[in-house]
């Protein structure tokens, strides 16, 4: 095998290892977040958990694309973006439902799970840092994980405000903000994928 072939195989192996770790961690945090969000009646926490689920799906799609042609990698990135936007719409619907019917979010649960998610996502971001300038499927993973860290900080702030103001509205506002962030991330990676297709 040529040096170029060996280098490519090593790169693919490193990408697969990173994506498998990210997939496992995000799947675990999705389950914890959904359970905690349901118990605490927190839209922001459920939005954060759905973001984790979306990311787990992104990592699965990216894992499929490793070692394949640029066409498959662009398709994987585009599908990831579409999936993120779809889940964000679901979060918006949940925000509307809770705004109409009411909710009583529990700030303690919100902050505890969001802090744990922040630690996990910071580690994921560290793992992805060596791939952030890579091909489009890995850049998609980097963008979505960055958004996760921002979302985690946002949920912690929402929990503090819910506690200080004794109001459910910070939870709803942050839930809507996370959904907007996810939509923007989805649009960004779809555009990135389209630019890659043009330059190929």
UniProtKB/TrEMBL annotation:
The keyword Transcription regulation does not apply. Pfam families: Cation_efflux. The keyword DNA repair does not apply. Its main location: membrane. Residues 20-193 form the Cation efflux protein transmembrane domain. It is found in: Membrane. Keywords: Membrane, Transmembrane, Transmembrane helix. The chain crosses the membrane at residues 21-39, 45-66, 78-96, 108-128, 149-166, 172-190. It is a multi-pass membrane protein. InterPro entries: Cation_efflux_TM, Cation_efflux_TMD_sf, CDF/SLC30A. This is Cation transporter. It comes from Pseudanabaena galeata UHCC 0370.
């Amino acid at each position: 095998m040529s040096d170029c072939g060996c280098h490519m195989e090593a790169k693919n192996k490193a990408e697969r290892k990173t994506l498998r770790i990210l997939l496992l961690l995000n799947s675990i945090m999705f389950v914890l977040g959904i359970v905690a969000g349901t118990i605490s009646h927190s839209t922001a926490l459920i939005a954060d958990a759905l973001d984790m689920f979306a990311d787990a799906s992104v990592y699965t799609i990216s894992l499929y694309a490793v070692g394949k042609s640029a066409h498959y990698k662009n398709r994987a990135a585009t599908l990831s973006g579409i999936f993120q936007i779809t889940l964000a719409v679901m979060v918006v619907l949940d925000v509307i439902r809770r705004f109409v019917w009411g909710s009583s979010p529990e700030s303690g649960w919100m902050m505890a799970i969001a802090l744990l998610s922040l630690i996990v996502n910071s580690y994921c971001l560290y793992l992805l840092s060596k791939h952030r300038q890579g091909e489009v499927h890995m850049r998609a993973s980097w963008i979505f994980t960055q958004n996760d860290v921002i979302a985690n900080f946002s949920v912690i702030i929402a929990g503090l405000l819910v506690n200080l103001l004794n109001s459910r509205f910070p939870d709803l506002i942050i839930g809507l903000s996370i959904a907007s962030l996810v939509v923007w991330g989805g649009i960004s990676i779809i555009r990135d994928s389209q630019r890659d297709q043009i330059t190929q």
